[in-house]
Amino acid sequence: MPLVSIIIPTFNRGHVLAKAVHSIVQQTHTDWEIIIVDDGSADNTREIVRTLQKDDNRIRFFQHQENRGAQAARNTGITASRGKWIAFLDSDDQWLPESLDIRLAAAASQQMPIIHSGCYILRENEEKERFGLPAMQGNVYSELLTRPGPMFQGLLIQREALSKINGLDEAITSYQEWDTAIRLARHFQFGFVDQATFLYDCRGDDTISQNLKRDAEGYTQVFNKHFWEVFRLKGPAGIARHYHQIARRYRAAGIQNNARYYRAIATLWWPLKRAKNSSKSLKNLGG
User: Fold this and answer.
1) In this structure, are 242 and 111 located in the same domain?
2) Which of 20, 77, 96, 228 has its CA at 20 to 30 Å from residue 53's CA atom?
3) 70/50 Cα distance (integer angstroms)
4) CA-CA distance, 215 to 205, in Å (whole number)?
5) For the segment 147-173, what is each residue's pLDDT rounded down to a tens digit?
6) Same structural domain for residues 187 and 226?
């Protein structure tokens, strides 16, 4: 059995898929399997994979008859996987050659069931540069309720950890790794490697990060799902900050009505923050 199962969900990206696969084939660590899950593509993805499989028998292929979303494709890959560790790579991104070795070494030295890492970002007409991922380590549940953290491309997760959360939530449309990380962090501590281990390619015109409306909707969806936990651990101020973030995202997407709506809700939560602080002050004065 392979040590690591690497899951690549893909949809109509036959033109870039080979680069992603080659970045895995060129890894310094070689005890792995690749599981490509075609999520109902209408392009030449199947033919591309067949060609890749001729060169490497560690590549496995599964296909959805209709488009079900990246989370569903990842879940199909998780179910089919055989490795002790599960890793993910988007079909338009690439791992750096020592990506697996770096993260496996960190998992061993830090004794963590979940490792995530830094990365480079590629933007149109720009050189690659470091992407500012937060260095979340240890018990990161509370921090993840404040902001997004790891990306799928840099995550290395023990199979038992994914089993504990019963796989990924297929209803989440974007910020999928944020929801996944929150759910994992309720049960497990995280390790972190600052070294960049993958290239996050934002040059395509079909990435979620390019779709600002979907970005705003996904952020809202994840926040609403974990609303009461945010309130329990972060209070009214935490709720208000998220509403401000949602308003900012809708404003960036040009949906001003939504931006004004969420900005108004954020404003309503701030008096509750002040009232809570005042209550604490009165309690302290009372001894």
Assistant:
1) no
2) 96
3) 21
4) 14
5) 999 999 999 999 999 999 999 999 999
6) no
Q: What CATH number should be reported for the domain holding residue 96? A: 3.90.550.10
At residue 211 the predicted structure's pLDDT band, cuts being 50, 70 and 90, is confident
Nearest to 95 by CA among 165, 20, 11, 5: 20
Return all residues near 198 (Cβ < 8 A) that are at least 6 apart. Answer: 89, 93, 94, 95, 96, 99, 117, 119, 120, 153, 154
For the stretch 109-143, pLDDT in tens is 999 999 999 999 988 777 789 988 889 999 999 99
Total number of domains in the chain: 2
